[in-house]
Write a structure and sequence with these properties.
The protein has 85 residues and is mainly α. It has 4 helices and no strands. Helix 1 (3-18) crosses helix 2 and helix 1 crosses helix 4 (70-84). The longest helix has 16 residues, at 3-18. The chain is globular and about 35 Å long.
Length: 85
């Protein structure tokens, strides 16, 4: 999966988990921080289930905490996928 595909899927997951479609914020920038946007550790559990379903593999929990921006998380997931091949 390309980095662009990962980013697109991850952006949609963030929107669903953070419920942006019903809120004031309509988009998520690459440098937005999940926790600064209202994300919580409980939401990460929900996001992890969605990531596994859409990306096809489990995401280590530390990725969420070490890479809280959309761009950082995409890079980490892309590198993890590339290294696992």
């Amino acid at each position: 999966m390309s980095r662009a595909e990962i980013e697109s899927k991850l952006r949609e997951i963030w929107k669903k988990v953070l419920r942006f479609e019903n809120g004031d914020i309509k988009s998520i920038a690459d440098d937005d921080n999940f926790f600064d946007l209202g994300g919580t550790s409980l939401m990460i559990g929900m996001m992890n289930i969605m990531c596994e379903k859409l990306l096809g593999h489990k995401v280590p929990m530390e990725i969420y905490f070490k890479n809280p921006t959309l761009s950082g998380m995409c890079n980490a997931l892309y590198e993890e996928e590339y290294q696992s091949e």
